Amino acid sequence: MRFHWLERVNPFVKAVTILLCGIVLAFTKSWQLAVAIAVVCLVSLVLGTHCKWSSMAKTFGPAILIAAAVFYSGLVFGKPDTGAEPIYSASTMGAALLMSSRILAYVSMGLAFALSSDREEFVVSLMHQAHFKPKFAYGVLAALHLLPTLQREWQEVCLAYQVRGRKKGVFGPLFNTLVNSIRWSENVAMAMESKGFDGDGKRTYAVVTRVRAGDILFVISCFALLAIGIFMI
Amino acid sequence: MEQSAISCRNVTFRYFETSKPILEQVSLELPAGKISVLMGSSGCGKSTLAAVLCGLLPENGGFLSEGTIALFGTPLKQLSPVERAKEISMMFQNPDLQFCMQTLRKELYFCMENISIPREQMKSRAEEAARAIGMEELLDRPLHTLSGGEKQRAVLACIYLLDAKCILLDEPFANLDPASVQELMMLLRRLCREQGKTIVAIDHMADHWMGTADHFLLLGEGGKVLCQANTAAEVEQAKEQFRQQGVAYPGIWKETHIPPLEHDSKGNCISLQGLTMPKVPQKRKKRWKQPEVSGEQTLLDAGEAVFPAGRITAILGHSGCGKTSLLMTLLGQRNYLGKIEIETKQGRRDLRDMRPAEHFGTIGIAFQNPENQFVTQNVAEEVVDGLRSRYPKKTPEELKTLALELLDSCGLRKYQKYSPYMLSQGQQRRLAVLAVLAGGQQVLLLDEPTYGQDYRSARALMDQVREQVERDGLTVLMTTHDRGLAEAYADVRYQMHDRCLEREVDPA
Fold first, then answer.
1. Domain range spanning residue A143?
2. Each residue of A123-164: pLDDT tens digit?
């Protein structure tokens, strides 16, 4: 059974909460806590959002690989090689576990935010809760929505390189795309202004995000869980 | 006397403090409630003038050193962007770069937020605007999936919603097919006649506007008004001046008709046999696997055509009918059904058997947007790069001399040290064609060669191509929706419609 309570939390509040939890995590030294956080994040993603399994796997799969690599290298090379001793011991084991579990914890915290938030809603909440200027917020939105066009242009530039018998590379096409996007940004800015957009002027809003009781409950429960985790584990 | 919507006096504008002014002492009056068209060649400052009249420049760069502009009697300087949007709003040339939201509904909400319309009214107002412009069904479709014509209509819906008294259009039809142009034109006429909007368009072709516009103004160097014409007869009289400025008027292509070259069936360069292209483009696979598509899922269904060698073939058709897809298929970028045979130096080959390198050595392409295909940062280097792959044994100095000769032949030599991005659109396209042909390809694909170009540069480009065809036996295949151009230059014409490719035969 999947609900979507995590999707309904105000995105800005969610971002700040997760960020703060991340900072607190940086000062702890327990791998059990990191694993617990990772598990809590993943469970709330499964129970609290409608995100696709595939998008979870796409990000989390590589993270497991990296964590495993860090674990192994921490285990084997965590201590200076003095010759006679076995290559791993209890102390390197602890360090390896701590490093790799932290990777998993941070990745799953990031995932919990990214897969449960709508990017447009996030930008809107930046305006309403964080008091960002509309100029900035709508600029970000415009750039986001230019991505499909950018992708199309990129393919065309790459094809042009092939047609001209050049190795595709990355930097050549990148230069063309960069030149294009600078001019585009001017064009889009003028189009927005011609529609009456005034970066700092008075305006109404079609969507207003608010901090509701549920959001405060979310913050309190997050920190409560974290506190319990720190003292228990 | 009738009120003038826009009046500007002695406007002088430059992009950099010390540079030559792009607009010099421009004065003009545009009557309210009428459709006026400002015409001029590329680079005469039309688009700059539009942006200045809208107040977008100098706000976004540049210097207005002299002159005053008034909208309906109010000086432009006193208006904030919000107030300005209620007086004048603009539609730009490139339909892709005018939106900041994902769907038309959200874009309309954005417009209403700007002019502080209460939230409760937004939904009904957005739907009303969409209904008026005939965009209801497309309200929630992502904007980037719409066609060029639909995007321009979406902009019109925004302008309608802002209720601007004056609509300024900067080359709105640059890349639309005739059907979409007609549709937009009808909407504009209605907005003008029924709602009393003032419409000011900037264009380098008079064709579309005959019978619609009340007022033609011809702009020369520095944006100066050279002449005015109010009726078809007056346009007829002013033809000579139009021609001097490189501006197209109805029938201009016909005046310089070149008789098509004869061709026989033996010299076929490319032949398509039962070519079927899927509607959703499929990328070419390493190993060709034939897609299974039929009927409605196809863009072209069992098309048969031959493109003669050493001749120019034009493919006409409305946008979205698959012209560009056909070129991409010929370039080996798309999956297809059927057979494509190409005559190469090594004899007749099936496209499926050719490796990309060999293929690109035979076929070159010039895209709609030439900026996407420059691979160097210097005009001369651009041509040298093409020549190098053709003559691997020559020394760099020899290549450079050869490149300069080629540049000289199309009047680009003086720009040899420039960056390609600094050239005008017309020059860029000529350079792109030159650079592609320097590689020694025998077949050139041209995608909409007149896109965003005035008559003079289109003419220069086509003359250059034509010369290569006659001298070197180049085979050219171009897509266009400019029938005049196709009739003037193409030896063979094909019409693409309803998933068929049909050869056009001249009545004579």
1. 134-194
2. 999 999 999 999 999 999 999 998 988 998 898 898 888 888
| Residue B43, phi then psi, degrees to nearest 5 | 85, 0
Contact indicator for A231, B97 with CB cutoff of 8 Å: no
Complex ipTM more than 0.90, yes or no: no
- Which residue bears the tokens 């000011």? B200
Q: Choose among B53, B20, B40, B46: nearest CA to B220.
A: B40
Range of the domain at B131: 4-250
Query: Looking at the domain assignment, is residue B374 inside a domain?
Result: yes
A13: closest CA among A136, A113, A104, A159? A113
Q: Cβ B119–A206 below 8 Å, yes or no?
A: yes
Structure tokens, A160: 């042009």
DSSP H or E segment with residue A150: helix A134-163
Inspect the interface and report whether the beta carbons of A191 and B98 lie closer than 8 Å.
yes
Instruction: Say whether both A221 and A175 belong to one domain.
Output: no
The C-alpha R_g of chain A, in whole angstroms, comes to 23
Please list, in sequence order, all residues whose beta carbon lies within 8 angstroms of the beta carbon of residue B401, skipping any fewer than 6 positions away.
none
Comparing CA positions, the residue from B433, B391, B396, B388 lying closest to residue B412 is B433
Nearest Cβ partner of A145 from B51, B99, B377?
B99
**Listed residue (B486, B446, B447, B485) closest to B468, CA to CA:** B446
User: Tens digits of per-residue pLDDT, B238-294?
Assistant: 888 888 888 888 888 887 777 777 766 557 888 898 888 888 877 776 666 666 776
**Three-state secondary structure call for residue B357:** helix
Q: What is the pLDDT of residue B1?
A: 46
Phi, psi of B393 (to 5 degrees): -85, -15
User: Does a structural domain hold residue A129?
Assistant: no
Q: What does the DSSP 8-state code read for residue B205?
A: B
Which SS3 state, helix, strand or coil, does residue B463 take? helix
Q: Do A159 and B162 touch (CB under 8 A)?
A: no
User: In CATH, what number is assigned to the domain containing residue B289?
Assistant: 3.40.50.300
How many residues are there in chain B? 508
pLDDT at residue B263, as a whole number: 67
Nearest to B17 by CA among B54, B65, B89: B65
Q: Which DSSP string corresponds to A198-222?
A: -TTS----S------HHHHHHHHHH
From the list A186, A197, A206, the residue facing B81 with the nearest CB is A197
Do A225 and A152 belong together in one domain?
A: no
Residues of A in contact with B362 (CB under 8 A): none
Amino acid at position B243, single letter: R
* 100-139 of B, contacting A, C-beta below 8 A: 100-102, 106, 109-119, 122
Q: Mutate one of B99, B100, B428 to test the A interface: name it (highest A CB count within 10 A).
A: B100
Closest CA to B199 of B189, B186, B210, B184: B189
In a domain, B90, yes or no: yes
How far apart are the C-alpha atoms of B85 and B159, rounded to whole Å? 9
